[in-house]
Amino acid sequence: MRDILPPESGRWRRFTDVFADVVERAGYGQIVTPLLEDLGVFTRIGDATDVVTKEMYDFVDKGERHIALRPEMTASVCRAFAEHRPTVPWKVFYSGSNFRYEKPQRGRYRQFDQVGIEVLGADDAFLDVEVIALASEFYRRLGLRQVTLVVNSLGEPDDRARYVEALRAYFTAAGDRLSEASRATLERNPLRVLDSKRERDQELIAAAPQIGDFHSPEAAAHFVAVLDGLRTLDIEFTVEPKLVRGLDYYRRTIFEFQGGTLDSAQNALGGGGRYDGLVEALGGPATPGIGFALGVDRTLLACDDEGVFAAEPVELDAFVVDVTGGLQAVALTAELRAAGLAVDRGYDNRSMKAQMKLANRSGARFAVIIGDDELAAGTVVVKPMRGDGEQLAVPRSEISTHLAAHPDQN
Ligand code: AMP
Questions:
Q1: Whose CA is nearest to atom 20 of ligand 1?
Q2: Which residue's C-alpha comes closest to atom 21 of ligand 1?
Q3: What's the gap in Å between 295 CA and the centre of ligand 1?
Q4: C-beta of 139 in contact with ligand 1 (< 6 A)
Q5: For residue 160, how far is the Cα from the chain centroid?
Q6: Cβ atoms of residues 230 and 136 within 8 Å
Q7: Which residue among 102, 114, 139 has the greatest number of ligand 1 atoms within 8 angstroms of its CB, and so is best to mutate?
Q8: Residue boundaries of the structural domains of the chain
Q9: Which residue is closest in CA terms to ligand 1's atom 3?
Q10: Does ligand 1 lie within 6 Å of residue 42's CB atom?
Q11: Which CATH architecture group holds 318-404?
């Protein structure tokens, strides 16, 4: 778990602001759910995923309830839907922290943030297109150019079940040609063997049965419509028949966005898919759902690597230097801030030299200086801190208008 300090923290806030702007324009409203849920909310996601079985921060609270810090947000959104029964289609977005007890490394943390959207109550393949397009648009707004989209369809639940059995038979027949770790995965969830990055498994994975051969006509038609929609919007994609996703509840369309610069184990910047069935599992009516979650931490690493969406310290308009005791700075700073300017000041009645050093370091456009002479004359000195403009004395009562009228250094 990490601390996010300024100016990086400001970049985080801008990140979620840009995300909110993209999705609010598409009719999504923000949902805020608790950081904690009843453990059952997450175990219903599926018992074959590491996120649920191995990585949850769960504990018994003082009321003897078994609860967990959320490892992801889709289950909470579905729980909220089942509880409040809003009208459909219900389009929501979220941002916030999740917790997974993973092995920390660059791009993988035990507390990490995600932004995401979910739509409940619509089955339309072109909704899948909208959802994917919004993630693409968000990456575009950040300035990322090397993000690629891979898509797949896991078919209807029956198709998926038949496929899982075919994979189980295929990988079991391979015996110890499959790595030991993947043999353990096979016991729990044959689909996840396809996710193995181990060298030894690659040849077997390449020749494994393909989900496309198991699609029902309905699932195949849905997938074709999704791909047609993506082409209509000129969104580039690759169909990856071996794409599976970490959580078990996905059906039909799944997708992942991959960064061009991160290590392969961490290059998934975000992903999502359809999860018809999850609301039902959480006690609600049968409701189709689709959504995605994008990792904030990892996407910002990709931004660093691509040199886009940099952290920017707040630009100050003025830095107030008061060497008459400090009370002038109290009033002047308040007045300038009230006039809409970004203003900081020196404290502790330090020397002119020390305060000017702070003014310099602050990056402010102007230092606004009050000494005993200025106080007596009812003026302040305005000193441009960048450029080569001259400093000048301005009547105290005109300082806000003066600064507002001089957006540049001079
Ligand atoms: P998931 O909920 O597993 O589909 O993850 C969606 C996205 O969240 C991933 O693509 C990552 O960008 C991000 N993510 C998941 N787990 C972590 C983690 N432990 N640390 C940082 N980011 C993560």
A1: 108
A2: 108
A3: 5
A4: no
A5: 29
A6: no
A7: 114
A8: 8-156+215-306, 318-404
A9: 246
A10: no
A11: 3-Layer(aba) Sandwich (3.40)
Determine the distance from the C-alpha atom of residue 350 to the mean position of all C-alpha atoms in its chain, rounded to a whole number: 43
User: Which one-letter amino acid corresponds to residue 235?
Assistant: I
366 CB-near residues (< 8 Å, 6+ apart): 317, 318, 319, 382, 383, 384, 385, 403, 406, 409
Q: What is the pLDDT of residue 410?
A: 46
Give the model's pLDDT for residue 213: 94
Q: How many CB atoms lie within 10 A of CB 405?
A: 8
CA of 270 to the centre of ligand 1 (A): 7
* Ligand 1 contact, 92 CB (< 6 A): no
Q: Name residues of the chain where pLDDT drops below 50.
A: 410
Burial of 387 (0-12, 13-18, 19+ CB in 10 A): exposed
DSSP, residue by residue, 13-53? HHHHHHHHHHHHTTT-EE----SEEEHHHHHTT-SS-HHHH
Where are the alpha helices (H) located in 59-212, listed in sequence order? Answer: 74-84, 125-142, 157-173, 180-188, 190-193, 202-206
- Does 70 contact ligand 1 (Cβ within 6 A)? no
Options 3.30.450.40, 3.30.930.10, 3.30.70.100, 3.40.50.10190; CATH for 8-156+215-306 is 3.30.930.10
Neighbours of 311 (CB within 10 A): 15
Atom number, ligand 1, closest to the C-alpha of residue 293: 6
Q: Phi, psi at residue 244, to the nearest 5°?
A: -130, 160
Query: In sequence order, what E strands does 225-317 have?
Result: 238-239, 251-258, 268-274, 289-295
Q: Distance between CA 21 and CA 25 in Å, rounded?
A: 6
pLDDT value of residue 409: 52
**Does the beta carbon of 76 sit less than 6 angstroms from any atom of ligand 1?**
no
Q: Judge if the beta carbon of residue 253 lies within 6 A of ligand 1.
A: no
Which of 15, 149, 298 has the most ligand 1 atoms within 8 A of CB, as the residue to mutate? 298
